[in-house]
């Protein structure tokens, strides 16, 4: 029996996971999130900041948090380089198929089907997701993506305990495709993100959860600010 991870949700696609005492923050977007006014961005600590792609709703607070905490920012090569121009020097750039060694395990940068232009119009490379493994736990965070057969490669290589998937539709998968994605990566436990922040990605929670239940899966739609054990 593997021990659960602590997962804290900061809204939209921003969350932190603590693994063996190491705090990993994903896709920081808080100050611009109309639903996250009660989150104090200056109180968020991080040892690592993972960024899936270049859109502002995934990295708007990254440079500030990185400069304050000294966290290592891990993203694709183009985004890591661009952050360097923003005064963030502690970066690690990757590209698809590459893995990065962490104190507790490793993270692999995997394919997403989306776009990745940076806020100032600079090309942000290709969008991706991460598979994070520790000695006992493995999870997949898809970033922003459509459903893609490439997700089946994750099930071939990893035993995924849970997946963090976008469910807001319009710009990413909606709940139906997210359930299919969970099947592709071989997990029945999904944490939904990238929903309700703006009107185009508002979803019906009951409908979405029911869809997953009908397929023998569980969809967790976290509340902003809450910490859950996964
Ligand atoms: Ni995006
Ligand atoms: Mn997005």
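^ Assign residues to that structure.
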């Amino acid at each position: 029996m593997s021990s659960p991870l602590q997962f804290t949700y900061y809204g939209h696609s921003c969350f932190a996971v603590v693994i063996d005492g190491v705090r990993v923050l994903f896709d920081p977007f808080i100050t611009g999130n109309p639903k996250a006014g009660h989150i104090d961005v200056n109180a968020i600590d991080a040892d690592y900041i993972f960024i899936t792609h270049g859109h502002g709703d995934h990295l708007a607070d990254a440079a500030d948090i990185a400069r304050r905490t000294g966290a290592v920012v891990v993203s694709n090569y183009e985004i890591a380089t661009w952050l360097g121009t923003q005064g963030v020097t502690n970066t690690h750039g990757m590209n698809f198929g590459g893995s990065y060694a962490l104190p507790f395990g490793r993270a692999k940068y995997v394919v997403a089907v989306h776009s990745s232009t940076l806020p100032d119009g600079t090309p942000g490379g290709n969008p991706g997701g991460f598979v994070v493994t520790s000695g006992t736990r493995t999870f997949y965070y898809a970033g922003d993506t459509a459903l893609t057969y490439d997700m089946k490669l994750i099930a071939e290589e990893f035993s995924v305990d849970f997946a963090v998937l976008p469910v807001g539709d319009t710009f990413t998968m909606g709940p139906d495709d997210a359930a299919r994605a969970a099947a592709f990566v071989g997990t029945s436990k999904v944490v939904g993100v990238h929903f309700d922040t703006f009107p185009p990605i508002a979803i019906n929670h009951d409908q979405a959860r029911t869809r997953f239940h009908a397929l023998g899966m569980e969809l967790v739609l976290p509340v902003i600010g809450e910490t859950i054990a996964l």
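The chain has a mean pLDDT of 97.
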